[in-house]
Amino acid sequence: MTTQFLEMPDEKGYFGEYGGQIIPPELKAIMDNINDAYEEVRKTEAFQNELHELYTDYVGRPSPLFHARRLSNRQGGAQIFLKREDLNHTGAHKINHCLGEALLAKHMGKKKVLAETGAGQHGVALATACALVGIDCEIHMGEIDIRKEHPNVTKMKILGCTLVPVSRGTRTLKDAVDSAFEEYLKDPVNFFYAIGSVVGPHPFPRMVRDFQSIVGKEARAQFLEKRGRLPDVVTACVGGGSNAIGIFTEFLTDEKVRLVGVEPAGKGLDTPEHAATMTKGVKGAIHGFECYNLQDQEGNPLPVYSIASGLDYPGVGPQHCYLKDIGRVQYETVDDKQCVDAFMVLSRTEGIIPALESAHAIAWAMKAAGEMSAEESILINLSGRGDKDVDFVSDYLSL
């Protein structure tokens, strides 16, 4: 394996044939300005020191690596480990890039930060970061997700952000992206669009990846210290793909480490109610970049569905598309029932309530562990905690 992964994207923002800036010329100038500012600030000792201090003293990094012994014994076979991003301040991996984006927006003199959110974790993390650095925040969220993720909606309001309900289309994540982006276009000079995953036009897929790579850097060092070797498998859920790229990046050149992204099969791949972009999608453009996406015959994004609000997006990060094509990452699917089963099993065997998004990766790992030996290991990026999902799951299961 070469260092090709570390050199991507190219100067135009492409990972192979995916990514880029599929945007109007006037917006391209704004994106290039963001890229230039990021290039300038990320290399400064002051920025890196401030970010590191916040990761340590504010977020609570490094997040722990936990050996899930009872879950491992229950499943038989491989030993299961959890990278506990759920223990970060705000409850998920999202705070990692939100702090970086908020600091960059402040450095650029922006007046307001805009974003979309699905499960609400990105919204809470960004509202938190904006409160910390002292900049206005506006979050767009689909009406269905607002009802489903009420605890996170309350948190965002308490943190002082302006919450914009989105009633168009499916009233979920894709439509929230459209709404936030339209607002951003009204004044891109003074507004900063803090994209919540490794998607969108260049430089966002790279920038978010860079901020999230702290997860993999920590996990690799922790695993070597704890086990004296690398994990056999590293897995994470994939919607837009930020938590997965965050943990995968540090392992990309380790050929013996199998990398597995887990997508939502929803109510079944034979139904229209899923969001399995890598499994069922085709190459196309969405939200300013090229990637695999779920689209109709006219090339328009299809309505998508997942029980996990943070995964119901019809596209996926361009680096994931490249990694699929070259075979470095394997992409699998888990349906709603398997997801909720895993949610309950982890809760009752380890006392850890996971986010429904993360439960997709847990479900896949539970099955895979039984097909592996006891000497082998699986590392799961537990990307978020399930506080936001407990009422929904309780109703779903009639608890």
What report would you give on this structure?
- This protein has 399 residues and is of the alpha/beta class.
- It has two domains: 158 residues, Rossmann fold (3-Layer(aba) Sandwich); 217 residues, Rossmann fold.
- The protein has a six-stranded mixed sheet, with helices on both faces. A four-stranded parallel sheet has the order 7-6-5-8, sandwiched between helices. It has a two-stranded antiparallel sheet with strand order 1-2.
- The longest helix has 18 residues.
Compact description:
With 399 residues, this protein is α/β, with parallel strands linked by helices.
Number of strands: 14
Strand/helix succession: EEHHEHEHEHEHHEHEHHEHEHEEHEHHEH
For the residues shown, what is the average pLDDT?
A: 95
Which geometry do the CA atoms define?
A: globular
Rg result: 19 Å
